[in-house]
Design brief:
Phosphorylase Kinase, domain 1, 3 helices, single chain, about 160 residues, about 20% helix, alpha+beta
Length: about 160
Amino acid sequence: MTNLPLRDSNKASADVRGRISPSAFMEVTELAAIKVFCVKVLCPDPAQIGAVSQEAFPNLESRLPKKDGEVDLKGRRMYGTYHEGEYRACATIKEGEDPNSLGLGTWEIPGGNYARVKIDDWKNNTSKIGPAFDEMARKYKRDAARPLIEFYHRQSELILLMPIA
């Protein structure tokens, strides 16, 4: 198991015209559980995840350790999760960090099998996130006991992960 989605030439990705690439290109990957700092925000309406994440991530980042007065994101992976009306902005915990001194909660993103889709240039394609999860749900049986995951792999690349049974 890995704490990063596996790379594969058969990844699904959203193209720039707004369609999701054929579901035949979706990948299933096994994810190890990931220990993270998190900020939780209630979000009973999934259509509001975008707005909620814009509140949650600045809150999280403002509490992370700083280097030269700036938030130090180097070597830190960022995730967003959604489950049962709750959105969590998450950041991996670096060795030696004390969550209590930062005023952050901790949590473990559950491991297991996940369907995976990549969205390139995600900041300009946020409207594709919901349809990509919908497409995965049409192809795979979702495990409703685990959260949907957004993995901010790069500034321009978002990996969506839907837990599958």
